[in-house]
Amino acid sequence: MKLIDDIVSQAAYLRTVRRDIHAHPELAFEETRTSDLVAGLLTQWGIPIHRGLGKTGVVGILKHGSSTRAIGLRADMDALPMQESNQFEHASQHPGKMHACGHDGHTTMLLGAAQYLAQHRDFDGTVYLIFQPAEEHGGGAREMMRDGLFELFPMDAVFGMHNMPGIPVGTIAASPGPVLASNNEFRITVRGKGGHAAMPQLSVDPIAVASQILPALQTIITRSKKPLETAVVSVTMIHAGDVPNVIPDTCEIQGSVRAYTAETLDLIERRMREITEHAGAMFGAACDFEFRRNYPSTVNHEAETAVARQVLSEMLPASQVITQTPIMAAEDFSFMLEAVPGCYAFIGNGEGDHRDPGHGAGPCVVHNTSYDFNDDLLPLGASFFVRLVQRWLEKA
After folding, report:
1. Which of 256, 237, 236 is nearest to 183 (CA)?
2. What is the pLDDT of residue 373?
3. Are 153 and 286 part of one and the same domain?
4. Strands 172-173 and 58-64, bridge-based pairing
5. What's the pTM?
6. What are the two backbone dihedrals, phi and then psi, of residue 68, each rounded to the nearest 5 degrees?
């Protein structure tokens, strides 16, 4: 493994920074302390900053040489509204908030790269260091873009990275094409006619109508879309009634839809609407259907992914540069990749044996109360970011 010595020598410092961020988690658009810490370190290292995009976002601007080429590196900063079960020293100090997805590590890896690049400036062009809020809830990438991210800081390519539990430490995956699905939500409200449970003939039971809708939704996956196109329709919430002997007026169904292509998503939305409306008509109820598209699919660009894999092949043994099997989770870096070509990579976080004594009883997977980022990744992730910059902005 060929890491950058000067970054490796900063491993203990980077661990301290990461654990400080972990101990002080902040939710979407509330990352005031975290953005202050980021802005302070960038300023200390002589990197000009721009603040306020997406409310709490920070962009560092690092220029050197005469080239007009520019590259963006992105890390997310927000935490999740979860109660941490870990009891080690750097566990969350804020009840109900936790860095359960590793954004503390992503931010620190980019800070490690920023420190090195500021000190050595061994590139020709511009590096934009994008510290983004609200990846988990709120679409912080989209909000930074709405506030002018790519107009203020035009770049030729943008790169991001996420830790991946279950992949061995020292391994990084980078693959062209779709790597993460779109994130979409739906709400179906069945409006019937309430009444006494002993006299159902005088009512229009919305629960009975909903019970017909639920299995029909799954026929979209098995009978409407092409078998080789992956998608998921998950009903995750059903609410109806208050007491056992009353048929309620309404029943509400909510859930999530995941897909890789816009065409498949269009099909699913259309068929869900048709099923809902016709089910209501068939049983004499009225049905309202709402569909919200949150994050698009994360699709890596061919050329930029090839560059990332070439950089990795020069840093790591071939067995540690792998392809990422697409998964149905979502990521708002997808908005950036729709606007600017780039690549989103996955760095192995291991199986969890890195956790200090005092960790919770659960597995070390993201969005779990026992999760903790693996600090051994920090020099690797920071070195990868730096090597991307050096390759993309090679001196003529």
Report:
1. 256
2. 98
3. no
4. unpaired
5. 0.94
6. -90, 0
As for how many domains the chain has, the answer is 2
Output the six-digit token pair for 317. Answer: 């043994």
Please report the pLDDT score of residue 175 as a whole number: 97
pLDDT given at position 96: 98
Q: Which residues of the chain have pLDDT under 70?
A: 396
In which region does residue 254 sit, left (phi positive, over 0), alpha (psi from -120 to 50) or beta (all else)?
beta
Here the CATH number for the domain that contains residue 99 is: 3.40.630.10
Cα–Cα–Cα angle for 387, 389, 392, nearest 5°? 105
- For position 221, which CATH number holds? 3.30.70.360
Rg over alpha carbons for the chain, rounded to the nearest Å, is 24
Angle, vertex CA 127, rays to CA 126 and CA 130, nearest 5: 140
Residue 396: per-residue pLDDT:
56
Q: Are residues 59 and 198 in the same domain?
A: no
Segment holding 103, helix H or strand E = helix 103-120
**DSSP sequence for 319-371:** GGEEPPPPBS---THHHHHHHS-EEEEEEEEESSTTPPTT--SS-S-TTSTT-
Domain containing 194 equals: 183-295
Q: 3-state class of 162 per DSSP?
A: strand
Predicted local confidence at residue 1, as pLDDT: 81
Amino acid symbol at 137: H
- Angle between helix 103-120 and 377-392 (nearest 10): 50
Helix axes 103-120, 32-44, angle to 10 degrees: 20
Q: Which residues contact 355 (CB under 8 A, 6 or more apart)?
A: 86, 88, 364, 370, 372
154 and 168 housed in the same domain: yes
Contact 212, 275 (CB under 8 A): no
Residues 205 and 337 in one domain: no
Question: Distance (Å, rounded) from C-alpha 215 to C-alpha 84?
Answer: 36
d(CA 327, CA 142) in angstroms, rounded, equals 22
